[in-house]
Specification:
The chain is an alpha/beta fold. It has 9 helices and 10 strands. Helix content is 37%, strand content 20%. Strand 6, helix 8 and strand 7 form a beta-alpha-beta unit. Helix 1 crosses helix 9 and helix 6 packs across helix 7.
């Protein structure tokens, strides 16, 4: 299959590893981490990428003058992500997205593994290599850097107040997710040090590439992935027993769960 992947940079190492080994042709575009903090911005960014792929105006995507081969599907390397993917769709291609609330499900290998850990350790801040490299993560180093930026903009006294407001007081644990295929001792140490600095518990959790493998290999089980047909849009599935995500077809009355 020929697949276009549009993904958050918080999945960069994991998705790149699997894509490099896949038998499928996978053309990947990564968007910066943190767009989910402003869901409307994330929605526009993803939809703009899809629209450019459809029109052939996307400067990121493979194109050859005489190559008539097209993509079989667009893959979104996102979860629901604060509803940031709600409303996204393609007129031309199926859009495939994991049935997940956020990227942690893809790190751990299943939404069940995520739910089980969350049930026991609700106040967990997650770390892994891609997250540390591409996101702001709680640590002494981060606090120093944020303090310097705030002090320059707002003065020392206001900077201290702003930094205090940024504190992650609802967290009690730092958990580093480790894939057997990706070993970064320096980032495990970074997470241990961050936990000690914050006074949190530390845990190293064995992740799994299983869900990412299925995602990029085109093994799209209905319970694990939404396949939104061309012309439909993604919506949160908030029904009792819902699947996190579903597709709606604006050409029909009412909502239809489409595969």
């Amino acid at each position: 299959m020929r697949l276009k992947l549009i993904a958050c940079k918080a999945l960069f190492r994991e998705a790149s590893l699997i894509a490099a080994q896949s038998e499928n042709f996978i053309d990947a575009t990564y968007l910066r981490q943190g767009l989910h903090d402003t869901p409307d911005l994330l929605r526009r960014a993803i939809q703009d990428e899809i629209d450019r792929v459809e029109s052939g105006d996307d400067i990121h995507t493979y194109s050859a003058r005489y190559d008539r081969r097209d993509f079989d599907a667009i893959l979104l390397g996102y979860g629901l992500c604060s509803n940031g993917i709600v409303g996204v769709g393609s007129k031309k291609y199926p859009v495939v997205v994991p049935r997940a609330h956020d990227c942690i499900t893809l790190y751990l290998g299943s939404k069940e593994a995520y739910a089980a850990y969350f049930k026991e350790h609700g106040g967990t801040f997650w770390y892994n290599a891609s997250w540390i490299e591409n996101a702001v993560t709680p640590s002494e180093q981060t606090d120093r850097e944020m303090m310097a930026v705030y002090a320059e903009k707002y003065g020392e006294e206001n900077a201290a107040f702003l930094l205090e407001a940024e504190m992650t007081e609802n967290y009690t644990r730092a958990a580093y997710i480790k894939w057997p295929e990706l070993s970064f001792p320096q980032y495990e140490k970074y997470t241990r040090d961050a936990a000690a600095y914050r006074g949190w518990e530390y845990d190293c959790v064995l992740g799994s590439s299983a869900l990412m493998l299925e995602f990029l290999d085109g093994v799209w089980d209905y319970d694990k992935f939404l396949v939104a047909p061309p012309g439909s849009a993604i919506e949160a599935d908030v029904r009792p027993g819902g699947k996190i995500l579903r597709a709606i077809n604006p050409r029909r009355d009412g909502h239809t769960d489409l595969r």
